[in-house]
Design brief:
By secondary structure, the chain is an alpha/beta fold. The chain contains 8 helices and 34 strands. β18 and β19 form a beta hairpin. α2 packs parallel to α3 and α7 packs parallel to α8.
Amino acid sequence: MPRNRTHFCLLLSSILFQCSLACAQSPTLQTRWAKDVHATAIPLPEYPRPQLVRNAWLNLNGPWQYAIAPMSQQTPPASYAGNILVPYPVESQLSGVTKTVGKDQVLWYKRTFTLPANYKNKNLLLHFGAADWQADVFVNGQLAGTHKGGYDPFSFNITSLLKKSGPQEIVVRIWDPTDDGPQPRGKQVKKPSGIWYTPVTGIWQTVWIEPVAPAYIASLKPTPDIDKQSLQLSVNAPNLLPGDAIKVTALDGAQQVAEQTINNGTSTTLNIPQPKLWSPEHPFLYNLQVTIVRKGKVIDEVKSYFAMRKISMAPDEKGIQRMLLNNKFVFQFGPLDQGWWPDGLYTAPTDAALLYDLTQTKAMGFNMIRKHVKVEPARWYRYADSLGILVWQDMPSGDLGNHWENRPGVLGRATDQKRDNISESIYRTEWKAIMDALHPFSCIVVWGPFNEAWGQFKTEEITKWTMQQDPSRLVNSASGGNFYPVGHMIDLHSYPDPAMPRPDLFGKQQALVLGEFGGLGLPLPGHTWQQKDNWGYQSFKNADDLFDVYKRFCERLKTLIPEGLSAAVYTQTTDVEMEVNGLMTYDREVTKVPAEKLKAIQEPLTKE
């Protein structure tokens, strides 16, 4: 009888939560994938870290308890308000909550779990793909650690905090001041309007537990060199003992192409003879296997992958700097990609949804994406690697307030933000963590520390520091304005018509790129975030008229490329909240101009 009662209570709780989820979603826009999200199941069940794969892991996504409390509350609440579906942000429909938190409150999470029997005698790592912004994590009532940063993954070794048997408890305290703080927050604001969107608070990527040996492989840093036909690989492996060896094997499918054993140290260089080069037209990926061997026994083993590709810059026959892929000029053309969802906000409803934007972008004939002031889950970059899409990765902006000058060569108007020591430290710490976490993904070819002067500070210093952090990629110092003679490119924003910096004035030292243009708006009834007051940089009433202008823009690009233009970014992949200048609607139900029609005019621009 008690068992039946318990079962009934769980079932009733599940039904009520499902109803609350449906009620929260019903008045607003959804994607087709929302129906695949169930309050009682594990959302986003896919392995979250494709650049470093182990077989054993425990997904902690699903229903957690939540409470919103005053910021002053440092201890877990005595009671919780209900359930929240992790990893969807608390403001999102799919969370089942849709409540705002703000700087004066904190968001508490709680759940219990039971460890599988085969996890005994292992070290247990608790991983968070991302949580915005400050996360204090408690396990069985003890602090496991604190992390500050909304866009980088983080982990805690919780082995010593676990009970020997029975249910284990995790409690997370989240504080996120959104635009009331100096931290990176991208396009989140407490009062959304125009190009600024709904706040995102709390856990927004997968939470999971991983059993590892005391000595284990924590991360890999592969850096290809196609000119030397080699791969430099650094292995982050804590707790190695004297005599431990790291064995590294590179494979073409299942066929071994190189192998090295590192007996002292944690880095090596693999020779990759006659490498198959990665590019948008030929996105070939090598497999990689790394093991720790102790006295002939495998202690730890992970699977990964890498690509042989090179991004660089060199002058053409006119002396104009060009962006090169694998030592050849390839025009890079792609959309500005915000990565927002009407039902999940920062979090795609499902993995299929996450993939959809990328496959559609490729189907439209683009070869590049500018990931705009947001960082995606690792699986997004893995898909870009597999599909062959070049990625320009922005640093999420924060601490705004300085003056923007979007014209190159103008003195006396642009200003740097006066960040205090705390703000600068937050920026540097998170930007480095993002670059470190994303280094393994070959699709990323450009780092962008600043956009349109949003929080831009110490421009020359930060740009040079970014270049030192990763010399294998190009750095777009300041996208769209407040230009300095530093970094690899000068990046003009021009709406709606495409334009470029003059080659004779700016092209001898930096590559010339058009970091944003277009913004052709077309609201489609039934597919908008709000019924009225939607906007684009130029508005249309039908798709045919929009396409006529878009086609003219592409013809204009065709004339600018011979003059020295290396890349262009069209605004944007999808509509987002009030913005209706996407190539797709916000719910992804309508591609406003058929993909094959776009591909016919765009693919000739990017042909390798």
